[in-house]
């Protein structure tokens, strides 16, 4: 990758992204290119200014509490026990620019997504620019607003996606992968569930179909009776209190909140759920190919099974919890996105129209999801013009337009 392209990310993220997507190289550099795409996203989202109803507005308002020493930051946060998040906020506070919080989220999130797609493409020889279609699918599928304006839960589960990818495809030890998941839990407690999936995967490998069905039923059960269990879980007892917080992060956002009630019954909310379930079915269908015993690739078997478990757990939650059931999904979409390349490779090998039709359907579903996600993003902005300026003109737009 030509290093001279990097300054273009600060001049115009839109042009930089177009150049990267169109760049065909005989040898890809997953780490370098993923960091470049993350940088592009960071510059683009600097101009985002959200209204007071959003999480990022609250996160920025709490940043002054982190104007303390490094050790003091662990007692400064609004949340207890989220030490990685405390360090993150402390670093942003020390920069003096609170809007770097959303930039850092965009950088980390899209770098992880890009790395998984690019490295998979290189590892399994999907051809020049074979990562582009999977990356675009992931960008469309992963909701942009929770990533850059909600930050905590999406960052946590994307880190879990990266840890599992490194474990299954790069042979990173299970202990290290679990430690990365623990770090993710210290950003948002919802990451405890991907950690559980990671730890039970060896058992799930013995019977993939049974494991998937059991996972679906279990999460239906959790969502259905979770509200009954929560009052009996102590809030001051180590492990049980942490489990209580994890369940609350899944269940309580859907209860007693006017915004969630409105979103539950709105046309936009219903369309989002239909779109989300459609993309889940795409990911599960593509992942199931690698759950056949005759495939013979244990790494892909594990990747496909883990992706399916996350996907069906999310679907179960969405059925019962329409508003808050999709919190795991960035993990499934990030890990399932590389399987999109199977559609184009099948089309080249067999020459029939079925893979082309399937790819077209996936493209339409992806674009529909992107449109819904962009609508949600714009709805939460005070003024979209700042975001448009930094997307098109980068640092120049931020200097003269904000």
From TrEMBL:
- What is the protein's given name? EpsG family protein
Question: What are the alphabetically sorted keywords of the record?
Answer: Membrane, Transmembrane, Transmembrane helix
UniProt xrefs under InterPro entries: EpsG-like
UniProt source species: Phoenicibacter congonensis
Entry superkingdom: Bacteria
Checking Pfam families in the record gives:
EpsG
Where do the TM regions start and end?
32-48, 99-121, 133-166, 172-199, 211-233, 270-288, 300-321, 356-378, 384-401
């Amino acid at each position: 990758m030509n290093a001279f392209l990097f300054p273009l990310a600060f001049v115009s993220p839109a042009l930089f992204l177009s150049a990267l997507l169109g760049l065909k190289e005989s040898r890809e550099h997953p780490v370098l290119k993923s960091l470049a795409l993350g940088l592009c996203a960071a510059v683009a989202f600097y101009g985002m200014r959200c209204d007071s109803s959003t999480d990022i507005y609250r996160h920025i308002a709490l940043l002054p509490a982190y104007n303390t020493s490094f050790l003091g930051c662990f007692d400064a946060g609004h949340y207890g026990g989220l030490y990685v998040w405390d360090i993150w906020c402390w670093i942003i506070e020390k920069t003096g620019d609170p809007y770097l919080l959303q930039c850092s989220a965009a950088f980390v999130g899209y770098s992880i997504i890009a790395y998984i797609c690019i490295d998979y493409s290189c590892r399994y020889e999907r051809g020049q620019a074979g990562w582009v279609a999977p990356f675009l699918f992931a960008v469309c599928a992963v909701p942009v607003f929770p990533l850059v304006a909600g930050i905590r839960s999406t960052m946590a589960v994307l880190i879990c996606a990266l840890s599992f990818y490194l474990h299954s495809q790069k042979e990173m030890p299970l202990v290290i992968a679990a430690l990365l998941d623990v770090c993710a839990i210290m950003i948002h407690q919802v990451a405890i569930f991907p950690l559980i999936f990671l730890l039970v995967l060896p058992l799930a490998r013995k019977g993939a179909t049974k494991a998937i069905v059991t996972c679906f039923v279990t999460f239906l059960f959790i969502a259905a009776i979770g509200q009954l269990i929560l009052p009996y879980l102590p809030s001051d007892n180590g492990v049980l209190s942490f489990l209580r917080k994890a369940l609350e992060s899944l269940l309580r956002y859907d209860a007693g909140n006017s915004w969630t009630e409105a979103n539950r019954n709105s046309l936009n909310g219903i369309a989002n759920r239909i779109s989300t379930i459609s993309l889940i079915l795409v990911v599960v269908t593509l992942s199931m190919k690698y759950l056949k015993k005759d495939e013979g690739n244990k790494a892909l078997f594990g990747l496909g099974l883990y992706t399916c478990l996350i996907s069906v757990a999310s679907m179960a939650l969405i059925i019962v919890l329409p508003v808050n059931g999709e919190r795991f999904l960035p993990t499934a979409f990030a890990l399932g996105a590389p399987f999109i390349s199977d559609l184009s490779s099948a089309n080249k090998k067999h020459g029939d129209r079925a893979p082309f039709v399937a790819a077209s359907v996936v493209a339409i579903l992806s674009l529909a999801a992107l449109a819904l996600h962009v609508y949600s993003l714009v709805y939460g902005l005070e003024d979209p013009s700042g975001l448009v300026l930094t997307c098109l003109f980068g640092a120049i737009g931020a200097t003269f337009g904000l």
